[in-house]
Structure formats: structure tokens, C-alpha cells
Amino acid sequence: MKREAFKMFLKPGCEAEYERRHAQIWPELKQLLSENGVYDYSIYWDKDTNILYACQKIKGEASSQEMGNTPIVQKWWDYMADIMEVNPDNSPISIPLIEVFHME
Predict the structure, then answer these.
(1) Which residue is catalytic, options 2, 3, 20, 22?
(2) E-strand spans in 1-104?
(3) Rounded CA separation 97/93 (Å)
(4) Tens digit of pLDDT for each residue in 23-66?
(5) pLDDT score at 66
(6) Among 1, 6, 60, 70, which residue's beta carbon has the most beta carbons within 10 A?
(7) Could you give the domains of the chain?
(8) Residue 25: its pLDDT value, please?
(9) 78 and 19 in contact (C-beta within 8 Å)?
(10) Does 22 qualify as catalytic in the annotation?
(11) What mean pLDDT, rounded, does the chain reach?
(12) For residue 104, what pLDDT is reported?
């Protein structure tokens, strides 16, 4: 098992919509993540900066950010592109964070 964290960028005024879409996350996307070993996945919003901080545990080889070769992830990226800062392929701009402390 490994832990990964990263940050993404929410467009101003899109906080409620971001929460609404994640409250209705597609079952097939959740299944894909689970089947590929992503679990215990949380995203936090810093309202002062509009930065999203995500952390997840991974049993498999790839984090959620590395599954862009699948149609469902590409569809999710397209769905979220209007409310997040994205790359040309609509993947969220995602910056890995370095873990400096962990306590179990």
C-alpha cells in the first residue's frame, strides 16, 4: 500500500457545483478506481486559495491521476473541465505533494 497526495485548482465560484458532482460520482468511475486499488480517497477544499488537496491510498500500481487512458476517466475529465483548471486533454492540472509526516 502507498499513499499519494496532490493538489488541483478549482475555478472561482464553482465550489458548490464541484461538491454536487462528487456527491453524485458515477458508480462506474468508483468501480474502476476500486478495481485498480484506489481507496480511502478524500479531497479537501481550501476556500482561501480555491486549491483542492487530494489524498488516496493505493493497493495497485496507479493513482487516480494515472488512469487517463480509460474512457470513463476521460469522460469524467471532460465533465469536470468547465469548473477546474485543466490541461489540453481536459485532465485536471495536478501537482504531486511530498509527504513529510505520517502517523498511524
Answers:
(1) 22
(2) 2-9, 38-46, 51-58, 95-97
(3) 13
(4) 999 999 999 999 999 999 999 999 999 999 999 999 977 888 88
(5) 85
(6) 6
(7) 2-97 (3.30.70.100)
(8) 96
(9) no
(10) yes
(11) 95
(12) 87
Per-residue cell: 5: 497526495
**pLDDT score recorded for residue 60:** 78
Q: Which uninterrupted H or E stretch holds 20?
A: helix 15-23
Separation of alpha carbons 20 and 61, rounded Å: 29
**Percentage of the chain lying above the pLDDT 90 cut:** 89
3-state DSSP assignment of residue 70: coil
Is there a contact between 29 and 67 (Cβ–Cβ < 8 Å)?
no
Question: Cβ–Cβ contacts within 10 Å for residue 25, how many?
Answer: 11
Could you tell me the three cell numbers for 48? 482561501
Q: Which residue has the cell 489540453?
A: 88
